[in-house]
Amino acid sequence: METKVFNNIEYQMIGSGMPIIFLHGLFLDKNSTKNFFEKDNNLAKFQHIYLDIPGMGNSLPTSEVTTDAIFKKLLDFIDDIIGAQKFAIYGHSYGGYLAQAIAYHYQNQVNGLFLTCPVTIADKELRLVERHKNEFIGKVHHSENETFYDDFESMNVLISQSRWAVYQDLILPGLNKANTNFLKHLQENSYAISFEEKLQNLGQNTKIQLVLGRHDHVVGYKQQLNKFISGRLQELTEHCKLLKNLSW
User: Fold this and answer.
1) Which helix (H) or strand (E) holds 176?
2) Which residues contact 92 (CB under 8 A, 6 or more apart)?
3) What is the pLDDT of residues 41-76, one digit of tens each?
4) What confidence tens digit (pLDDT) does each residue in 182-221 have?
5) CATH at 37
6) Which of 59, 164, 191, 244 is most buried per CB count within 10 Å?
7) Which domain holds residue 73?
8) Number of domains into which the chain is organized
């Protein structure tokens, strides 16, 4: 598996077939997606493209500290690496926000969108979030990387030794490499993409799969359901009405 760099974006490509681009969350890196998804044999028929979003992992930040600038950088990457091929996108949290923007831009190319806990509204004051809770499963020994344990508890519901180990494998590499100054400035000043209101206008043939958190205190889940499910339910309702009126 060769690590490559395109226009200051570091990435890895594994396998062959229809490409899937994997976009990690804020302050993370490609280890958080690669170390998780490479265990899934169901993805063997696809080409996996894991990248570090600008300002995270080993990718340099954009000169302009905006989500628009990051988005444009990713478009250049896709145009060069994928070209006119059909592709799918996985995105988590902020990566899910960017994935929606990419799917909107490439409506005729994106076959599928798999989002976990995606940002849909950049402004935190406008989000409907849930109350965080912890459920402890046994005692957790956390002398190693202890300074990160509070973050682990604050971002997870189920707390156990095995989940602490997963956190250290998937999350810590990105936290240790992230350009904190760049990302904090991004969060405080220019986190929203300029066409956020259009992100629900995805291609008609784009399949969407969501995984949301019932106790998600960062992005919530109700607005995501309303955005992605309500429209599809309306389409399904109209389709059922049509079938009902057909004579067989």
Assistant:
1) helix 172-177
2) 23, 24, 25, 28, 32, 33, 115, 116, 117, 118
3) 888 999 999 999 999 999 999 999 999 999 999 999
4) 999 999 999 999 999 999 888 888 999 999 999 999 999 9
5) 3.40.50.1820
6) 59
7) 3-245
8) 1
